[in-house]
Amino acid sequence: MKAYVNGIELSYHIYGSGEPLVLLHGNGQSHGALKRQIDFFRKRYQVIAVDSRGHGKSELGFRPLDFQVMALDILCLLDFLKIDTYRVIGYSDGGIIALEMAIYQPKRQKQMVVIGTNYDANQIKWWANIFSVVGYFFASLLTPLSFFFRRIKAQMGLMIFYPHIKEEELANISAPMLAIVGEYDVISRADTKKMVDSVQRGEMAVIHNGTHFLIRQKPRELHDIIASFFDKDVT
């Protein structure tokens, strides 16, 4: 399905029924990367799985790609679907989008789970960022040849130059937030703890031997932790 929101066609899929749960994928992916999460959570929630701007079957548009505009895309989609309040699971870059959504409209979010998520571009470990820099350089050279490389350049640019969320902005997030990080993630546990301490109601879970790819590496453990968090009283 597609909706024209915030100046672009945004692709989304809805699975199951119940309370709305938004699923947001990582950089360079589409909603299909979260198939295991869709299959698990659709049994209890109305899962809204979105291809974020410039990813999957969603348009890139002509505005510079950043997480704030991507967050507005999702909020506009929820308006289009007439959804007032929601839960959200954001993986990697999807978690950054979820943070920006909560900063824009804090009262609308019921609960948020972010997985392997940073709130500042400098928090990605240097050795992991090398691949983004190389990809961005070659995509920049090839952009005049194909729209495909324009998308790749925009995606790589997200990881290199964004986000820059201030801790004072995180303090506006009032919904309960769970930050999950792998023991060997490219995002450090120290930075994840700073994020958790900055929001009003945050908690953190570290998955033993986990990497940045928890959605594929340890889905059962991941789902159990999230389900337990969602079962908590949010009043």
Automatic annotation (TrEMBL):
MF GO annotations: triacylglycerol lipase activity
Leader peptide range in chain numbering: none
UniProt-listed Gene3D superfamilies: alpha/beta hydrolase
Chain segments annotated as coiled-coil in the UniProt record: none
Record domain AB hydrolase-1: where: 20-138
InterPro entries for this protein: AB_hydrolase, AB_hydrolase_1, AB_hydrolase_fold
GO terms classed as biological process: glycerolipid catabolic process
Entry keyword set: Hydrolase, Membrane, Transmembrane, Transmembrane helix
Segments traversing the membrane: 126-149
Protein name: Alpha/beta hydrolase
Gene source species: Listeria booriae
Classification lineage: Bacteria, Bacillati, Bacillota, Bacilli, Bacillales
